[in-house]
Amino acid sequence: MNRALVRLLQKKERELRERDIAYRITGLATRRLGWLADANGLDLSALGAGNIPATQNLKGPANVREWLREARADVLFEATSLDPHTGQPAIDHIRAALETGAQAITANKGPIVHAYEELRSLATAKGRRFLFESTVMDGAPIFSLFRESLPAVHLRGFRGILNSTTNVILSSMEEGLDFEAALRKAQEVGVAETDPSHDIDGWDAAVKVAALVTVLMGVPIRLDEIKREGIGGLSGEVVSAARAAGKPYKLLCRAQRSNEGVAASVRPEQLPLADPLAWVAGTSSVVYFETDIFPGLAITETNPGVETTAYGMLADFIRAVSE
User: Fold this and answer.
1) Backbone φ and ψ of 297, nearest 5°
2) For residue range 220-257, what is the model confidence (pLDDT) as tens digits?
3) How far is 255 from 155, CA to CA, in rounded Å?
4) In sequence order, what DSSP letters do the residues of 302-317 get, joined into one string?
5) Measured between alpha carbons, how far is 30 from 24 in angstroms, rounded to an integer?
6) Which of 19, 32, 48, 318 is most open to solvent, judged by the fewest CB atoms within 10 Å of its CB?
7) How far apart are CA 28 and CA 116, in angstroms?
8) Does residue 76 sit in helix, strand or coil?
């Protein structure tokens, strides 16, 4: 992910210059390399290839706050792996960035679900931005759409397909593979993790639902308040037969506002072929919004790649340093 972001920063250098945006990367942190910082700037070509020049005089801070200080960071790009139950360590990283005066941009959904109000308030108090466009549907403009282009619109609910791993598995089972073979195929093409349980059990989709409900509907919702069921109980025969009968299975995400609050769910559902969501296959995603002004407003992305997610972070970077 971060390599894709570095390559995209280089690719869009002309467009950034046209916006009077100049930058240098002064810090890098990974499990393999640890905390690396050089306030004079790191070698972008080497970073894009995943290498660190041995000749570069790098400091090795001991923790995130020391790292941010050594790097003299103005912007933090946070892209650690999701822990759906705690949101860590991303929350601590973002909190540290904001407290030390940096803008905070993340592709991690956990901080929105577990610490959105705290981090938003901290960003406001520090005069900084906390942005997260890449957290749901990669770089598709969802949060910025409502924040910047739909003022005074009230979101009543949404439904969508938001997890590409389960969508790939279901699509493969429709073609005749059993569950295990479909999972292996998803892993071979790089869609599924070695441990795919967060996707298969519906946690990833539930976190995305919670993020949308919390930010766009203004209702903080806990993960245990979302009715969650994964696809692990579906067999290849059942999924294939459902498609042949014209009612394919999809892992459907839903949220609906009522007088009692917001009810949300993630579960496999059979959809009629007349429903556009029934035709969303492979790594594609879609979300349909119902608002007080627009009865139906859809955002669809078709087979996104890692550059799409990186673009969401790039767009947030432009927003953060342009305002």
Assistant:
1) -135, 120
2) 999 999 999 999 999 999 999 999 999 999 999 999 99
3) 10
4) -S--HHHHHHHHHHHH
5) 18
6) 32
7) 25
8) strand
